[in-house]
Amino acid sequence: MVRVKICGLTQADDVRAAARAGADAIGLVFYEKSPRAVSITQARKMLQALPPFVSSVGLFVNADPARVEQVLEHCPLDILQFHGDETPEFCRRFGRSYLKVLRVTGETDLRHPLDDYHDAQGLLLDCAVPGQWGGSGQRFAWWRLPELDKPLILAGGLQADNVQEAVRIAQPYGVDVSSGVERSPGSKDHDKMAEFMARLQGL
Ligand SMILES: O=C(O)c1ccccc1NCC(=O)[C@H](O)[C@H](O)COP(=O)(O)O
Questions:
Q1: Computed over its alpha carbons, how large is the radius of gyration of the chain?
Q2: Residue of the nearest CA to atom 14 in ligand 1?
Q3: Could you tell me the distance, in angstroms and rounded to a whole number, from the CA of residue 142 to the centre of ligand 1?
Q4: Is 164 exposed, middle or buried (0-12, 13-18, 19+ CB in 10 A)?
């Protein structure tokens, strides 16, 4: 079954609901300009609500390394996700598992990023939207992703009504969703999360 990360949660109750729905991972946005940004205090409460075997992913956008270190000091994150223009050297300097995000518009050549970010745990493909780093709710034209020895995660504008088609076309290792399962930015809709997960059953 395709793995699922639900991103942009801001409340412990939503963390519990995401886990109940069957999410494999949750994403916490440590980017102050996002409407889904969480403080360290908030993140700690949310991580305490996380049951075993559900991973926590911390998102950063061109952050100061000291800020990443500060978050890591206080928050037991499993994986870092770099959503900006971070270099491979930047991504690996924390000695943690990481995902590198590629913002794509069409069929993007994945070979160069694969070489550059060879130690990434996976590459996450999100829709490139001018002026926005992520969580846009916009999709790109899905295409059949190549078989690489690196997990590819599909994101951007996914929701219950289109996730089956997206998975059928792209055949990714995993999917990542944020605004498609929200009531408003940062507030997850528990029914939408459950429906999203239900549509992936058996795929
Ligand atoms: O969610 C945000 O506000 C955000 C801000 C800045 C960088 C990344 C952000 N979210 C990243 C995610 O992982 C989203 O899940 C991904 O972009 C897909 O979002 P959506 O199209 O809303 O499902």
A1: 16
A2: 135
A3: 17
A4: middle
Say if residues 47 and 38 touch (Cβ distance below 8 Å): no
**Rounded alpha-carbon distances, angstroms, from residue 37 to 4, 9, 140:** 20, 9, 24
- Split into its structural domains, the chain has a count of 1
Q: How far is the CA of 147 from the centre of ligand 1 (A)?
A: 25
Phi-psi region of 36 (alpha: psi -120 to 50; beta: other; left: phi over 0): alpha
Query: Block means of pLDDT (10 residues each) for the chain, length 203 residues?
Result: 97 98 98 97 98 98 98 98 97 98 83 90 94 91 88 96 96 97 97 98 84
Looking up residue 68, the CATH number of its domain turns out to be 3.20.20.70
For ligand 1, say whether the CB of 8 is within 6 Å of any of its atoms.
Answer: yes
- For residues 179 and 136, the answer to whether their CB atoms sit within 8 Å is yes
Q: How far is the CA of 116 from the centre of ligand 1 (A)?
A: 23
Domain with 23, as residue range(s), is 3-199
Supply the ipTM of this predicted assembly: 0.97
